[in-house]
Amino acid sequence: MPYIQNNARQFLQQRPTFDPVYILRDASLGLQYLHSRTICHGDIKGANILVDDLGRALLCDFGLSRIKSDVTGRTVRVGTTAIIGSRNWMAPELLAGSNPKLPSDIYAFGMTLYELYTDENPLSNIPHADFVELVFKLQVRPDRPETEDVPRLADPFVDSRRAMLGPGP
Q1: Per-residue pLDDT reduced to its tens digit, 97-129
Q2: Annotated catalytic residue: which of 19, 26, 43, 119?
Q3: Core vs surface per residue 60-70: b (16+ CB within 10 A) or e
Q4: The pTM is what?
């Protein structure tokens, strides 16, 4: 496998005219593959999507991945045993202590869509002490960016992101 220097966010910062939709397409195909094998990635975000010089994206960092056993229904952790992750991308139920599930990845993917189109960490304006209450209990989500700030973020993407960030899992 060739060395890939940039994650998605770095790649887009270096190439501001490149449309993130291509990176998100590749990442979604990788996520679809994982989910078809009942593997939960557990840490989807721009930093965990590698992008080569041609704009092709690959998911990486499977340290928090979980495999759902079809036979027993139990979840087995792959890699680290601590329940950790990237708070700003975590599904609300994970903030409350639930185990990651496939819908948790979909929520994180919606946050990643926001991140790659805005070049901002989602919900970065929420203080650490208030994060769980605002995101889990009050269901605060990132606001829709203004069209003039993010002209490529078309309404279908906004609708998709809204669905990914809805109540769940």
Answers
A1: 888 889 999 999 999 999 999 899 998 888 888
A2: 43
A3: ebebbbbebee
A4: 0.79
